[in-house]
Amino acid sequence: QVQLVESGGGLVQPGGSLRLSCAASGCIFSINGMGWYRQAPGKERVLVAGTTRSGSTAYPDSVKGRFTISRDNAKNTVYLQMNSLKPEDTAVYYCYVGSSKGLYWGQGTQVTVSS
After folding, report:
1. Could you give phi then psi for residue 90, rounded to 5 degrees?
2. pLDDT by residue (tens digit) across 6-39?
3. Burial of 66 (0-12, 13-18, 19+ CB in 10 A)
4. pLDDT band of 113, cuts 50, 70, 90
5. Residue 32: what pLDDT?
6. 32 pairs with which residues across the strands?
7. 78, β-bridge pairs
8. What is the β-pairing status of strands 10-12 and 109-113?
9. CA distance linking residue 102 with residue 28, whole number of Å
10. What does the angle CA 50 – CA 24 – CA 67 come to, to the nearest 5 degrees?
11. 1 pLDDT tier (thresholds 50, 70, 90)
12. Residue 88 phi, psi dihedral angles, 5° rounding
C-alpha cells in the first residue's frame, strides 16, 4: 500500500506564494518520476511540474519562471514552490509518484488565488 500525503494548499492573494509538499510512504520501490498536476473546475487535469530522480525538470509555459519543483529522495518527498500566483492558478493540485510498481496519486489539495 502506497500513500501520498499532500499539504500546503490554501487561499492566497494574487502575487502571493505557497509551497506544496507531498510525502510518499508505504511499499515504494525505485521511485523515478515525481511531480504535480492540477485540475480547475470543468477542465482537464494538466501537468504543472515534473522531475526525475536524476533531477531533470519540466514545466508548462504557463508556470515557467514562477513555479519550482524540488525533491528529497531520502524522504520520498516532492515540493512545489509557487510564486507570483495568479487567479488562473486556482485549482486542485495533485502530486504523483511513478515507480517500478506503478503510478500513484495524492488526494489533492485546493489552491485558491483570490483577492
Report:
1. -60, 125
2. 999 999 999 999 999 999 988 777 888 999 999 9
3. middle
4. very high
5. 87
6. none
7. 22, 71
8. parallel
9. 9
10. 30
11. confident
12. -75, -5
Report, in this order, helix, strand and coil percent for the chain, each rounded to 5. 5, 55, 40
- Spatial distance between the Cα atoms of 36 and 59, rounded to a whole number of angstroms: 10
Q: Please tell me the distance from the alpha carbon of residue 17 to that of residue 78, in angstroms, as a whole number.
A: 17
> pLDDT tens for residues 84-103?
999 999 999 999 999 888 89
One-letter identity of residue 104: Y
pLDDT of 86: 98
Q: Do residues 24 and 76 touch, judged by C-beta distance below 8 A?
A: yes
Residue 73: phi and psi, rounded to 5, are -65, -35
- Under a CB-based contact definition with an 8 Å cutoff, are residues 69 and 53 in contact? no
Residue 105: CB atoms within 10 A of its CB come to 15
Find the mean pLDDT for residues 67-81.
94
